[in-house]
Amino acid sequence: MTATAPTIADPREPYKRLRTTRSNFELYGWVFMRASGVILLVLIFGHLFVNLMVGDGVNAIDFAFVGGKWASPFWQIWDLLMLWLGMMHGTNGVRTIVNDYAERPLVRLWLKVALYTAFVAVTVLGTLVIFTFDPCPVDAPAELLASFCSA
């Protein structure tokens, strides 16, 4: 009569994936953070150099300065890239923090819903401001307008 040895449960059983499919989403997120960080450095330091060092520096920044910059499609695209990349970079970073520190799935879900809602709101509103900004508003004082506006 041979006795069968009792089976011992696999100690890693609770940690096995529930799904059998795997994606490279986290890898792509990691690569995106590195690439967008480098591009953001160029965009931000270019922005700071033009706004603070060229011409009269910080003293020249007013409504006319912004109106003059955003009258050019080059600066609209520059600022749009800064907005979109900055928001995606920051949102991905906060998403990673939420995944690391929010232990309960429902809390994690609601934090991500709030995060993605804020991302969409800021990105959409910022994009609208960049492309609908009127550098020559009607009834504005002439001293506040850019030089290319007719008074």
UniProtKB/TrEMBL annotation:
UniProt-listed Pfam families: Sdh_cyt
Molecular-function GO term, any one: metal ion binding
Main localization, broad class: membrane
UniProt KW keywords: Heme, Iron, Membrane, Metal-binding, Transmembrane, Transmembrane helix
One term under GO cellular component: membrane
Domain of life: Bacteria
Protein known as: Succinate dehydrogenase subunit D
Transmembrane segments: 27-50, 70-88, 109-133
Keyword Iron: yes
Cellular localization per UniProt: Membrane
Keyword Cell membrane annotated: no
